[in-house]
Design goal:
This protein has 131 residues and is mainly alpha-helical. The protein contains 4 helices and no strands. The chain has a single domain, classed as Up-down Bundle (3 helical TM bundles of succinate and fumarate reductases), CATH 1.20.1300.10.
Length: 131
């Protein structure tokens, strides 16, 4: 019997060329994990809101500092990106958007839409904060 060749068990980076679809798939999974992790921050804020005034002030200070705002900004992007990619998957479930150009366009649209919605929400928040 000839010796077995060392072959990969699954597709990997040396076999397939990187493309927008694989990037979006990986980011969709990562943003799902970030949203799940963000539930701890939301739970902390809700517990502080239900607690006393000192606890709420402490939570507000934490979320208002630059690191807290950066985390909230990332969480906002993760929400919109995951939402738009989820809508993209729903369209696929009903049989729409399977063409190569449609998949590519919807992927770029989801990424650009998530960026635009994040900027829009944070612009509104910044505007209302300044009032």
């Amino acid at each position: 019997m000839p010796p077995a060749r060392a072959r990969p068990l699954s597709p990997h980076f040396q076999v397939y060329r990187w493309q927008i679809g694989s990037t979006l798939s990986i980011l969709h999974r990562i943003t799902g994990l970030l949203l799940a992790a963000g539930l701890f921050a939301l739970s902390y804020w809700l517990a502080a809101l239900a607690g006393d005034a000192a606890g709420y002030r402490a939570a507000t200070r934490w979320f208002a500092n630059p690191l807290g705002r950066l985390i909230l900004l990332g969480w906002t992007f993760a929400f919109f990106f995951h939402l738009l990619c989820g809508l993209r998957h729903l369209l696929w479930d009903i049989g729409l958007g399977f063409g190569r150009s449609e998949r590519r366009a919807s992927g770029w649209l989801a990424a650009a839409g998530a960026c635009a919605l994040t900027v829009g929400v944070w612009s509104l928040l910044w505007h209302f904060e300044r009032l």
